[in-house]
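Most newcomers find our protein records easier to grasp once they have seen one. A learned vocabulary of local backbone shapes supplies the integers on the structure line. An example says more than a description, so a record of this kind follows:
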Amino acid sequence: MDVGLVGQPNVGKSTLFNALTMLNVPMAPYPFTTVEPNRGVAHVRVACPHTDLGHPCTPGNAPCQEGTRWVPVELVDVAGLVPGAHEGKGLGNRFLDDLRQAEGYLQLIDITGATAPDGHLEEPGRFDPAEPVRFLEEEMVLWLGEILSRQWEKAARSLELNEGKVEELIASRLTGLNFKPTQVLAAFRHLPLDLTHPTRWTEADLVRLARELLRANRPRRIVANKADRSRPEEAARVAEELAPLPCAPASADVELLLRRADQAGLIRYHPGDSRFTYSHPEGLKPAQRKALEEVERFLSVWGSTGVQQALEALVFEGLSRIVVFPVEDETRWTDGKGRVLPDALLVPRGTTARELAFRVHTDLGEGFLRAVDARRKRTLGADHPLEPGDVVRVVSKR
């Protein structure tokens, strides 16, 4: 699963990317530091079932730390967006193409209002922090609407003559964006469109359809970055202005500082926590102590950096993902090599037992007989929807 990290230039995307992935991509206070998309692995937290089992786990794809599993998520930091991207301005075409594979987006904004639309920094309060959210939506809607409208009349006429399904036509035009006919049908329910006569649709109808498709199938969470230079009341004002789109304050700078200090052994900090502890306070240099004391003051006001919480809100709420644990032995919760709970899989909410089998291996899915809920010691049918934290054995004839 890919999560896109988006926003106008110079709002802290590369800093947030580094904090979430602990990679060193270029960071600088000027536009278009990111030209080619950076890719890395971030993680979301879930409770590890090994605490219920009473035995330590042997994690493979998802590290375990004191009873918390860190499940990997692909993160893509793409080029900064400027107005007119759908017309190819700035790095517009590349930006929009990079976003095609992302299933959801974290959009960073500068809560201090100091970042101009083109990415240049000016005095705080000069710009409306919420404006980039509106123009990103418009750019994406115009981009998707343009794709839909290409030779639309000809395609719609052919569809009517052959009595085809309009949802399949729409989905076929958006193949690169992985829209399914069922998702298109869901969007139709919110629009007054004549589905039997698509030749009567106007360009405005196609734009409205594009907006509804994006709203329903490409969720966004707004990260009001640079909270360390702002006030809680300003964050509340921006969040209210952007409602119902979720928006929460954060500081990528503070999160990156904490993670690097933890990595250097100066402190102990778990991403997402509301506090940290000093490892060897007597060994800190004056500058290090001063910086960490400022971080403590920040956490006392804001509660956390907001960075880990933003990613998890998008993954678990916006994208409706859950984590399940496939095993081969339902009594010991092990795989064929005796490893305890080696894999943690991030799957869509509603994933069935058979669909899990296909995710583990095609042969398991094709030969599916039943599944076993290892926690509750019960048999699961092929269409049984899995629940968060389920430990599941798949029984297959292959």
